[in-house]
Amino acid sequence: MWQEILPNTWESILSKIRSFGYSQKHAALVPAAALAVGGMLVYWLRSRNKIKTIEMGDGWWGSGERPVKGKEDESIRPFKIETSDKEIEDLHRRLEQARYTPPLEGAAFHYGFNSSYLQKVVAYWRNQFDWRKQVEVLNKYPHFKTTIEGIEIHFIHVKPSYVPHGRAVQPLLMVHGWPGSFYEFYKIIPLLTEPASHGMNEGDVVFEVICPSIPGYGFSEASHKQGFDSIAAARIFHKLMNRLGFKEYYLQGGDWGARITTDMAQMLPQSVKGLHLNLVFIPRRGLGRMISVMLGAYVPWLIGLTREDVRRIYPYVQKNIYDLLRESGYLHIQGTKPDTAGCGVNDSPVGLAAYILEKFSTWTDKSFLQKDDGDLERKYTLDELLTNVMIYWVTASIVPSMRFYKENLSKDPTLALNSRFGVHVPTGIAAFPQELAHTPQVWAKEVYKNIITYSYMPRGGHFAAFEEPRLLAQDIINFVRKVEHL
Ligand SMILES: *[C@@H]1O[C@H](CO)[C@@H](O)[C@H](O)[C@H]1NC(C)=O
Ligand SMILES: CC(=O)N[C@H]1CO[C@H](CO)[C@@H](O)[C@@H]1O
Question: Which residues contact 190 (CB under 8 A, 6 or more apart)?
Answer without folding.
Answer: 198
